[in-house]
Amino acid sequence: MFRAVFLAFVLVVCRPVFADTMLDVGYLHVEVPQPPTLSNLDPEPRNNGLAGAQTGLEDNLTTGKFLGQTYTLNEKSVAVGDDALAAAQALLATTPYLIVDAPADVLLRIADLPEAAGAILFNSAAGDIALRDADCRANMLHSVPSDAMRTDALAQVLVQKRWSDLVMITGTYAEDIAYADAMRTSLTKFGLRLSDEKTWDADADMRRTAAQEIPLFTQSFGDYDAMIIADELGDFGRYVLYNTWQARPIVGSEGLSARTWSPVIEQWGAAQLQSRFEEQHGRDMTGQDYAAWAAMRTLGEAVTRTNATDPKTLRDYILSDAFELAGFKGRPLTYRTWNGQLRQPIAIVHPRALVAQAPLEGFLHQVNELDTLGIDQPESTCEAYQ
Q1: d(CA 328, CA 290)
Q2: Are 245 and 315 in a shared domain?
Q3: pLDDT tens, 244-294?
Q4: Cα 137 to the center of its chain, rounded Å
Q5: Domain boundary among 329, 344, 359
Q6: If pLDDT is split at 50, 70 and 90, which confidence band does 204 have?
Q7: First-last CA distance in the chain
Q8: Other CB atoms closer than 10 Å to residue 125's CB: what's the count?
Q9: What CATH number corresponds to the domain at position 89?
Q10: Which candidate in 56, 91, 124, 220 could, as Cys together with 292 as Cys, close a disulfide (CB 3.0–4.6 Å)?
């Protein structure tokens, strides 16, 4: 009897004691006008991104309940034409931690708000290279890959497959043009070239005439190894597949694509994350969902390791060599100390399977092979992180 009472006393007294901590995170979605596209077969989920943050919140709470940690998520959506800065200020009045789904220009204005000084903002949607380069901000981390990371990943595959004679069709929207610019830079970086390129005819309607119009549109390319499609809005690219004059592989925004995340990723425990997400939200996880999930989990991991909730302590830890995030991609994810970009492998997929994961074997780096994707430190003009 005495022994049982003594053991119970020891268990109570010696149990690890964690101070109760609470972290409130804001999620800001800024709606942008969506241009009309040829196809509406794949509409963007209304909760794209937010659902990922919510799954990350549940993961944080699962871990936190054993450590006395509580997390909350406060979401605001800004309609087209409404004041995004006012919404950001309202969130920043309650928390210094924001996950932001907004265009690059809005992100920069939010980051420059006086209320954002000392805050930690996560860019979970904008792939603009300038945000990681000349327009970087010290209070902004990027959980979404840059356009350059995705095009570098695809360029590595092109090199591996020895597809060196390339042509490209570029859409007319700003996102298409930005992707095409990133692709040209990546091709040069890895010793590849474009033998020809064309701009998509925005007036064409391919829903009924693709079999007649696409061969004529692509005939002038002649022969080549692969065709790159720069169609980030999903406008025309789907109609190009299997309708080109030459029967050649299609890569880029359609066909063989470099993705942040895809339902076809099943290795490294990814199937568990996919299942949890689908159970919670009734759909597949998108790349934007994954970026928001990674942002939320970054904060959860930092709080767990530091047992702190102040922005300076968490930022210092997130950017330190000690930080690692288990991201279900086969490698620990870390942040680049020169521009705040989350290092992560990039999946090369088609709609039915994972083909490869970049960085590919043979693409070496003196520090971290993941830094073969996107802006490396010697190339960076970001001064905010210095």
Answers
A1: 10
A2: no
A3: 999 999 999 999 999 999 999 999 999 999 999 999 999 999 999 999 999
A4: 18
A5: 344
A6: low
A7: 64
A8: 24
A9: 3.40.50.2300
A10: 124
CA-based nearest residue to 91, from 55, 132, 62, 120? 120
Residue type, 195: S
Q: List Cα–Cα distances, 355 to 165, 225, 279, 347, 349, in angstroms.
A: 21, 18, 26, 8, 5
Order of all β-strands in the sheet with 140-142: 69-78, 21-30, 97-101, 120-123, 140-142
pLDDT in tens, 141-168: 999 999 999 999 999 999 999 999 999 9
Are 23 and 140 in a shared domain?
yes
Position 6 in a domain: yes
Q: 297 is in which domain, residue-wise?
A: 2-145+262-344
Instruction: Give the global pTM.
Output: 0.93
User: Cα–chain-centroid distance for residue 72?
Assistant: 22
In a domain, 286, yes or no: yes
Per-residue exposure over 46-58, b if at least 16 CB sit within 10 Å of its own CB, e if not: ebbbbbbbbbbbb
Q: What is the pLDDT of residues 310-362, one digit of tens each?
A: 999 999 999 999 999 999 999 999 999 999 999 999 999 999 999 999 999 99
Q: Is residue 376 assigned to a domain?
A: no
